[in-house]
Amino acid sequence: MISFQDVSFAYPGENNILEGFSLDIKEGEQLAIIGANGAGKSTILKSVLGLLDIRGDIYIDGLKLEKKNLKQIRKSVGYVLQDSDNQMFMPKVIDDLMFGLINYGMSQNEAKKKSEEVLQMLGIAHLAEKHNYKLSTGEKRMAAIATVLAMEPRIMLLDEPSAALDPSNRRKIINTLNSLNITKVIATHDLDLVLDTCERVILINQGRLVADGAVKDILTNRQLLENNNLELPFSMV
Questions:
Q1: The whole model's pTM is what?
Q2: What is the CATH number of domain 2-191?
């Protein structure tokens, strides 16, 4: 579904954030990307959407990531940003959901119906007419996920989806992720979230792949985690 082939990236005048990174992600897989701050987690997600000028090759669903394929690739990939304030830019929640659908050719009525269905599915239909600036952090995160799901992506990228959430909203996010039968790639520091949502995890350090395997094999390896500036999940301490 996604293939990175010897991918490197650096901002002008800086050291590489990604260095010779290669990875294959299968269709329907739930993959977590973990690593310390600055390891390159968010960079990996951004590169899938063609937002960065990388060296190397990336293939998404058989299409090479290049300018002529970007529009088709971006129809298949949904990206939930770490900061929902950067994703929710319309006055009301329903407006944000409808915006993308209308841009892809849906009529106003079709877009509204589809948006209401997605909000209902996520249990946040009551937020439809709420102004974005009045949403709590958890509500805004759920609404941001709804805007992506409304587009029916085949691949979903999520950057720190549980950041700053209270326990109730964190559990709601976990349940939502587990209910989605699509390919999911989650970049996060929340190792307990990884235990609850993912089957496979990769560990990166300074842009290089350090470990790749089953979640429990990697997240129970204290020495491996500590060597890469991470700690065991709270539930395993």
A1: 0.91
A2: 3.40.50.300
